[in-house]
Amino acid sequence: MPLEIPRGTRDYGPKESIRLKDVISRTEQTFRRFGFYPIITPAIEKIEVLNSKIYGSDANNEIYLLDGKEAGLRYDLTVPTARYVAMNKGTALPFKRYMIAEAWRRDEPQYMRSREFIQADIDVIGSSEISAEAEVIAASATALENLGITDYTIMLNHRVILSAIMDTFAIPKDKQIQTMRILDKLAKISSEEILKQMTELGISNDISEQMLNFIKVEEGTEQKLTRIEANITSAKAPIADMRELISLLDTYKIKGKIVVDLSIIRGIDYYTGMVWEITAAAAGKKTLAIGSGGRYDGLIEKYSNIHTPAVGSSIGISRVVEFLKAKSGANTYADVYVAYLGKEAMKYAIEVANIFRESGINADLNMTPRNISKQLEYVNSLEIKYVCIIGPSEVQTGLIMLKNMFKGEEVQISPEDAVTKIKAGM
């Protein structure tokens, strides 16, 4: 029987792991630059935390249960954060935390949807100001830009606007959550299927069609907000919030496009205000959601009975790594490879490698008794830029042969001068 890994999981080889760690590192640097600080929570949470009704009944089927069903693997990073804040009531607010870690969902694996994945979350807890939304969105957008993703779109919606639209079209209160679940499929299924499902819910075809047409109108952002404001009188306050958010994001000078999309629903059971989704398209590939977020003012209260406003944004690190897959990447962290001929050259080779390493240059060192052509073949396979060659004459003179494998240039110099050459990009 062939060896296999569980469905919905994957291995990362050296090249992919380097790309993954680089994405995580640069994302973390951006979050820190915005004043966010980390927390680390267990991968395992008590089932009563994970099973909160705020996530809806479908979520229970997605949890990997452990420990006699008393605990399970976290399926996002928001629940552990909410639990942490509820347990640490002395936390200074606003609490600006970031967390980059794995999560697990027992979904059916499909394209860009795995059972094990990595997320990068930032949250501002303890502030109800629109500036908190602007900060987490801008930090997420800047992180993407620092990864080279500049052609992205931020699609905004507001849960209160959506509820006001459903009230205007006389959707019964007890059917609004189900209606949202149906509308959430708008990007995946046809309008005809949406209307069919709403009819099955008990909403007349005429009302369903009118509301769907109102939501789907394609127009500019300000034009859309003006139209909603003119027709949905109870939506004036959230529309003002949305205009303020767009204005603030303009001040941050983010590069992505901002649009209002009334079909963006996100976490139906716990988002209470602004929601968004960040999408981008890699060359030759379909548009993909690589980030999302929203305001969840009622979640922490579920665990602490204390009303605590909160807003957060998430980047799908696993998806971003796939998104960047087409770009070239390193096969190793080594800047230079120390090759040597014969066992008598080994100690000098170690000394030279130490000089490189102590100077901040990542150095790989030959580990096997092989000839120079085989060592250079290895260097080429890993695409290491520099090779340091040590033979009997180099041992005698205390010099090395430094070669730039990309340019074909080589020079016999001291190890200390080689450090200078490598740092100067010889």
Level-1 CATH class name of the largest domain: Alpha Beta
CATH architecture of the largest domain: 2-Layer Sandwich
Terminal CA distance reads 51 Å
Helix/strand-derived category reads: alpha+beta
Describe the structure.
This protein is 40% helix and 20% strand. The strands form 3 sheets. Strands 1-5-6-11-10-9-7-8 form an 8-stranded mixed sheet. It contains 16 helices and 16 strands. With 426 residues, the chain is of the alpha+beta class. A hairpin with a 4-residue loop joins strand 3 and strand 4 (71-73). It has 2 domains: 14-172 and 242-323, Bira Bifunctional Protein, Domain 2 (BirA Bifunctional Protein, domain 2, 2-Layer Sandwich), CATH 3.30.930.10; 336-424, Rossmann fold (3-Layer(aba) Sandwich). The chain has helices at residues 14-33, 47-50, 78-87, 130-146, 159-168, 176-183, 191-200, 205-216, 221-231, 236-252, 299-304, 317-323, 346-358, 372-382, 392-397, 415-424, and strands spanning 37-38, 44-46, 65-66, 71-73, 95-104, 116-125, 152-158, 257-260, 274-280, 288-295, 310-316, 336-340, 363-365, 386-390, 400-404, 409-413.
Q: In terms of topology, how is this protein built?
A:
Layout: H1 14-33, E1 37-38, E2 44-46, H2 47-50, E3 65-66, E4 71-73, H3 78-87, E5 95-104, E6 116-125, H4 130-146, E7 152-158, H5 159-168, H6 176-183, H7 191-200, H8 205-216, H9 221-231, H10 236-252, E8 257-260, E9 274-280, E10 288-295, H11 299-304, E11 310-316, H12 317-323, E12 336-340, H13 346-358, E13 363-365, H14 372-382, E14 386-390, H15 392-397, E15 400-404, E16 409-413, H16 415-424
Parallel strand pairs: 1-5, 7-8, 12-13, 12-14
Antiparallel strand pairs: 2-4, 3-4, 5-6, 6-11, 7-9, 9-10, 10-11, 14-15, 15-16
Helix pairs in contact: 1-4, 1-12, 4-10, 7-8
